[in-house]
């Protein structure tokens, strides 16, 4: 059988498809990592909120036990504001992380489309190769039939001459 003329193109398309699949896989892993980080930050914010409430209540109990006045209440207010500022920083990190997750999601979709395109191109060249192989087999079969016909004609003519 003659060599397939587009074999190098087929090899390139196979390699491109494999690379696209790997890039898609990497993008999915990166997205999962970023989503996990977002969940961790959200859990951290929730933990800090609960912790703030518990600390403020504890601080309030200490102030009441000491019998502190306005000064103690002001200190408690500043303490609570500082804890709220920490929570706000974590909330900002969460918003930033949400944007990172959206970006990673868009990258996954982009990689998915590239992978689908690479698969489509590979399928097209594979279909071309199948047609080529089918054509080569048909040509070979036609040649064999022609040779068989010629042999049959030669035998018939040889018998006719006798």
Sequence-ordered SSE layout with sheet pairings:
Layout: H1 7-66, H2 70-161
Kindly report the oligomeric state of this protein. Answer: single chain
The shape, in one word, is rod-shaped
Count of DSSP H/I helices = 2
The number of E-state strands comes to: 0
Helix content: over 70%
Low-confidence stretches: none
Q: Which range does the strand content fall in?
A: under 5%
The number of domains is 1
Task: Describe the protein's architecture and organization.
The chain has two helices and no strands. Helix 1 runs antiparallel to helix 2. It has one domain (7-124). By secondary structure, the protein is mostly helical. Helices cover 94% and strands 0% of the residues. Residues 6-58, 108-149 form a coiled coil. Keywords: Coiled coil. Pfam families: YscO-like. This is Flagellar assembly protein FliH.
């Amino acid at each position: 059988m003659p060599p397939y003329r587009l074999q190098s193109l087929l090899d390139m398309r196979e390699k491109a498809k494999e690379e696209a699949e790997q890039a898609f896989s990497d993008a999915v892993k990166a997205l999962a990592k970023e989503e996990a980080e977002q969940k961790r930050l959200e859990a951290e914010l929730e933990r800090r909120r609960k912790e703030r409430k518990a600390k403020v209540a504890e601080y309030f109990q200490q102030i009441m036990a000491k019998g502190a006045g306005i000064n103690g209440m002001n200190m408690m207010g500043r303490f609570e504001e500082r804890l709220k500022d920490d929570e706000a920083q974590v909330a900002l990190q969460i918003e930033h992380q949400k944007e990172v997750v959206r970006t990673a999601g868009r990258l996954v979709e982009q990689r998915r489309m590239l992978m689908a395109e690479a698969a489509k191109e590979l399928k097209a060249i594979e279909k071309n190769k199948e047609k080529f192989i089918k054509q080569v087999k048909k040509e070979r079969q036609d040649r064999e039939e022609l040779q068989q016909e010629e042999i049959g004609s030669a035998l018939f003519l040889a018998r006719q001459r006798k």
